[in-house]
Amino acid sequence: MALRIAVCVKQVPDPETPASAFKVDESVNRVVPAPGVPPVVNGFDLHAVEAALRIKDAGDAEVIVLAVGNDFVMDVMKKPLSMGADALVLAEDLVLDDLDAVSTVNVLAAMIEKSGPFDLILGGRQASDWDQAHVPLGLAEKLGLPCVTLARNIDPGDGVVRVERALTDGYQVVEAPVPVVITVSNELGEARYPTLRGIMAASRKQPERLTLDDLGLNAEALKPALTLRRLFIPESESQVELIEGEDEADAGRKLALRLRELNLI
Amino acid sequence: MAGILVFGEVQYGAISAVSGELLAAAGKLADEGVDGGISIAVMGDDLSGVTAAQAPGTDHVITISHPSLKDGGTGGYDAPLLAAAALAESISPDVILFAKSDFGAVVGPGLAFKLGVPVAQDCIDVAVESGTGRVTVTRPVFGGNALAVYGFDGDNVQITTIRPGVFDPIEGEGSGLIEEFDASGVVSGARTTLVETVVQESEGVRLEDADVIISGGRGVGGPEPFELLQELADILGGAVGASRAACDAGWVDHSYQIGLTGKSVKPTVYLSIGISGASQHMAGLSGARNIVAINKDGDANIFKSARFGVIGDWAKVLPSFTATVRDLAG
Ligand SMILES: Cc1cc2nc3c(=O)[nH]c(=O)nc-3n(C[C@H](O)[C@H](O)[C@H](O)COP(=O)(O)OP(=O)(O)OC[C@H]3O[C@@H](n4cnc5c(N)ncnc54)[C@H](O)[C@@H]3O)c2cc1C
Ligand SMILES: Nc1ncnc2c1ncn2[C@@H]1O[C@H](COP(=O)(O)O)[C@@H](O)[C@H]1O
């Protein structure tokens, strides 16, 4: 029987947006989207899609992509489909603001119950907007499943998944029973590029859209649990002293002498 | 009980430096008005080397020993989480602090969700709000481009993970009580098992401890230049680091990565070579005192945070830099 794999992906502002184009509206504590810079699928989530597709390449699997958010850009959100995922399920514009982690967990859990059952539920290591790295842990708790984080390799066996988990210095091998929630890190290796055939196939697929009603949720389930008091861009105070020389080699020599002069080396 | 519960960590058999940083954060909260004292809990399969003296500023040192908590409980997500939840329920603290480490970044949020309360990850400051007595935290968001201040409203336990390398570890010797918390009943319910841990031992100085770091990015162009960086690091008694781009390219192992999803470091001198200075890289450098940049692009972001810089091709700048350093070292 085919493994059923859910992959949770988030649409985020492009994290490669240059710092100079990054703006915050402090009066409402929100990030102002940089004009002309389209959003992207969160990078680590593409690694999660890649992990699912590798499992599909090696055997029989169905890969369903789940996303919660606002103002989805379809060209962006269809990327996992063009990489080879089978279906896309969206819960869009449930509330005006960004959902916090607890609310996101509530919605994703309901989506998983509705589209499930799944053997594997994959997510990214962290979302590059709020950098929280905790939605999948919450999801596991909510669904009553175990969770293994920071996978760099996933090896699904018979009822047991073997995960290589990236550590800051090395790795671990962890075994978990299915179903299980797993977060994927960039150590897995690059996510594949969509092929032309994949893009064509994706363009013919329509996402399934779910509302709060479909999910059996009400606004109460989407109340923020932590209060954002202030959002601001920190000032950088550093003034760089540029070291110049007759040529680059001379500049290198002078840099060493300057650092020595200040007893820094 | 009320007060602050710190989930510390054990390294080489003793309470680790990052735990001292957490105790400093806890001390700040206690000074600002969180009553009820400070306790520290550590987990592992063999905690025989842990003493109260290793935890200055605490009233209680709580050890949780069990074979399924080997490697400090970093791997099997379940066992340390179940142990943490059992302890938290038994002492019901007002505040729980973790490090944003292999251990805390998983068990911290896991515990929060288990208890049904929010969590703030990767905080660089904690404070007590006058009036309410509740905790507020500051955390970098959007890869470090912005800072967000959050408040814990309501009256639930307040759980945060603290970014390593930001607080100076508390000094001195502790004199609290040490006691064992028996979690054997709960950890036996664990569903995940840790099969093995493979540690990449760094040969010289650990990046987290290094006073000098020589770090390379995509701009160095390949794996070979890292040998030159290592040579320079060896002369200076430092360590070699890297940007994610250099690690993802396979030029060096991911254990070299510095930044938001890599290591947080606090050297006196951080020499960055061919690194653009993306906010996510700089996120690992909040504790670095002097950033020195060699980059051929004068507009590179790294020059905004650097104290010293050379605009130029590293392949021309570095050899004379290294030669001069070697001469100076005599
Ligand atoms: C959620 C998230 C987490 C991330 N976490 C991390 C992290 O932990 N650590 C991290 O590092 N990154 C992280 N990143 C990636 C980060 O955004 C950048 O992509 C990365 O840091 C870029 O690495 P780099 O500076 O080496 O490469 P580039 O940005 O490509 O910069 C290369 C630099 O080298 C210079 N250069 C080129 N040739 C030469 C030469 N001959 N001599 C001198 N200079 C030269 C160029 O001018 C350029 O400035 C993360 C990203 C996201 C979205
Ligand atoms: N709104 C969302 N929709 C779908 N998946 C999400 C959403 N938010 C978070 N996730 C998943 O949870 C991971 C970690 O996100 P975070 O905890 O927000 O850093 C992401 O990489 C996604 O896989």
* Strand residue percentage of chain B: 25-35%
* Count of extended strands of chain A: 15
Radius of gyration of chain A: 22 Å
Q: Name the shape of chain B in a single word.
A: globular
Number of helices of chain B: 9
Instruction: Write the element-wise H/E pattern of chain B from the N-terminal end onward.
Output: EEEHEEHEHEEEEEEHEEHEHEHEHEH
Helical content of chain A (DSSP H or I, runs of 4+): 25-40%
Radius of gyration of chain B: 21 Å
CATH topology of the largest domain in chain A, what is it called?
Rossmann fold
* Structural class estimated from helices and strands of chain B: alpha/beta
Spatial strand arrangement across the major sheet of chain B: 7-11-6-1-4-5-12
Give the uncertain stretches of chain B in residue-range form: none
> What class do helices, strands and sheet pairing of chain A give?
alpha/beta
SSE order of chain A, one letter for each helix or strand: EEEEEHEHHEHEHEEEEHEHEEH
